[in-house]
Amino acid sequence: MRFVNPIPFVRDIEISKVFYCELLGLRITQDLGNFVLFETGFAIHEATSLEQTIWGKPSTGSAPYGRQNLLLYFEHADLDALFDNIAGHVNLIHPIEVQAWGQRVFRLYDPDGHAVEIGEPQAGA
Q1: Within-domain flag for 28
Q2: Does the residue 113 lie in any domain?
Q3: Structural domain boundaries, residue 78
Q4: First CA to last CA across the chain, in angstroms?
Q5: Is residue 111 part of a domain?
Q6: How confident is the model over 63-95, as pLDDT tens digits?
Q7: Residue 124: its pLDDT value, please?
Q8: How many CA within 13 A on the CB side of residue 65?
């Protein structure tokens, strides 16, 4: 068995594509309309169709998909430039901070409330 990729549910695939492509700079390798795969292996899926596929019906609740129980982790070589470019356009959890292990990171929410962490690449990783 091998792990392939996380697939967060998103309410509006177009809003999420703008977020992940235009704000975070990910490149799409496959766009099937309700499913988008990025060249990093990360993917998003429009929630209503995925819920139908998995459970046979879409959910009826309106709770956000991101529920502070999952962190999507990315790295970026120029953390300061990325932060400066997107900080005013996202819902920040916190600005750039140095973590206990020495890595600089900032955290934010995507359009569906999923927590996203972006850090500088770690040496030896």
Answers
A1: yes
A2: yes
A3: 9-119
A4: 23
A5: yes
A6: 888 888 899 999 999 999 999 999 999 999 999
A7: 66
A8: 23
**What total number of domains does the chain contain?**
1
Instruction: Check: CB of residue 113 under 8 Å from CB of residue 64.
Output: yes
- Of the candidates 100, 122, 124, 106, the one whose C-alpha atom is nearest the C-alpha of residue 23 is 106
- What does the alpha-carbon distance between residue 5 and residue 96 come to, in Å, rounded to a whole number? 26
> How far, in Å, CA of 72 to CA of 61, rounded?
23
CA dist., res. 23 & res. 120, Å (int): 17
Q: Are strands 71-75 and 115-119 parallel, antiparallel or unpaired?
A: parallel
Distances (CA, A) of 14 to 18, 57, 80, 97: 6, 22, 27, 31
- Calculate the dihedral angle through the C-alpha atoms of 25, 9, 36, 82, rounding to the nearest 10 degrees: 0
